[in-house]
Structures are given as C-alpha cells and as structure tokens.
C-alpha cells in the first residue's frame, strides 16, 4: 500500500536554514567534543564555562542571552556543572537574580581543556582558511542578531524572546 508521503511536495526543504545550521553545528560540535574528551567536558559545557569566566559574576539570564540558550536548557546544563563542582550559583540577590562564578575546580577544568580547544580550533581555522573563517564568523554573528531581532515581539504578535548579541563578551 502506497503511503501519503509520496504526494508531499518537499521541494525547497533542503534549503531550510534550521536544517543546514543544525547539521553544520552537529558536525562542528562533534569535532570539538572529540578534542575535549580527555578534559572531561563537552564543547557545550566548555562554551558555558568560557561565558562565565569572561563575564563572572554573571546573572543567569545574561549568560543565556550571550549564548542564545533558552532558560530551561541553560538551567539543566548549569545544574550538571554545579553538581560536578565546576560552577557556583549564588542565592537570589536583592534584584532577584542569581549569579554564576567558576569554582577553583571549574577554573582548573577550563585551564586543562584550553590547549585541546586551541588545537582543534587552529586545525579548523587552518583547514577552512583564516580569512574565510573571519568573514564567516562575522556573517554568523550578523545572522544571529537578525534572528534574535526576528524573535522580538511584533506590534501584532506575542512576545517570544529578546536579546542583543555581542559575542565579544564570549
């Protein structure tokens, strides 16, 4: 029996921004995860630790905006990093915010992972070309800002998310 799927018009779906970005992100993540394996952290954890280290004492919401990670995903990742003793999460301040800092163990873990990250990153950049990477990185930054702006509430629609990206803080 023939399924109804054969009648679907899937033309153009291979050009989907989400599909292509996620596919590329998975490949890049897999490369960095392999490089960081001996340090005991994954590339996603590395990014969070770097974000905290560069901005500490950073409010959780601000880190989420910097990394463009939704609060639920970030909270789950932070819980694991705290359990492993890599970060400290403050009690709520008078401004009802909780702040993140690296623990001494977190600093050691980050320091231990940096050489492997630097090697993987250098290999990646030398393979794609330094000028190409700089141009692409700038384009990715621009696109991230465009998409974050698209998520901002429209006059006729519900609010989704608002943030201004500045990867220089990362």
Q: What would your notes on this structure say?
A:
- This protein has 170 residues and is mainly α.
- Helices cover 59% and strands 5% of the residues.
- It contains 6 helices and 3 strands.
- A 3-stranded antiparallel beta sheet has the order 1-3-2.
- The protein is globular, with a radius of gyration of 19 Å.
- The protein starts with 16 loop residues before the first helix and ends in a 19-residue tail after the last helix.
- The mean pLDDT is 88.
Strands side by side in the biggest sheet: 1-3-2
In percent, how much strand structure appears in the residues?
A: 5-15%
Quantity of strands, as a count: 3
Q: What's the alpha carbon Rg, rounded to whole Å?
A: 19 Å
Sum up the overall morphology in one term: globular
Number of helices: 6
Category from helices, strands and their pairing: mainly alpha
The average pLDDT is 88
Q: Which H/E pattern describes the elements?
A: HHEHHEEHH
The low-pLDDT segments are none
End-to-end C-alpha gap = 54 Å
Helix content: 55-70%
Outline the fold blueprint.
Elements: H1 17-36, H2 43-55, E1 58-59, H3 60-67, H4 71-83, E2 87-89, E3 99-102, H5 104-128, H6 130-151
Helix pairs in contact: 1-5, 2-5
């Amino acid at each position: 029996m023939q399924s109804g799927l054969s009648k679907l018009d899937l033309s153009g779906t291979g050009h989907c921004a989400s599909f292509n970005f996620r596919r590329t992100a998975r490949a890049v993540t897999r490369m960095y995860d392999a490089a960081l394996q001996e340090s005991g952290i994954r590339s996603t954890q590395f990014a969070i630790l770097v974000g905290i280290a560069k901005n500490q004492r950073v409010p959780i919401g601000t880190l989420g905006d910097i990394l463009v990670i939704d609060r639920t995903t970030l909270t789950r990742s932070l819980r694991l990093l705290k359990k492993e003793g890599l970060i400290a999460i403050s009690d709520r301040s008078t401004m009802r915010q909780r702040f993140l800092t690296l623990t001494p163990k977190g600093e050691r873990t980050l320091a231990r992972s940096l050489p492997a990250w630097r090697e993987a990153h250098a290999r990646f950049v030398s393979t794609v070309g330094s000028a190409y990477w700089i141009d692409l990185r700038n384009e990715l930054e621009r696109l991230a800002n465009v998409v974050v702006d698209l998520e901002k509430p429209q006059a006729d629609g519900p609010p989704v998310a608002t943030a201004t990206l500045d990867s220089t803080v990362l």
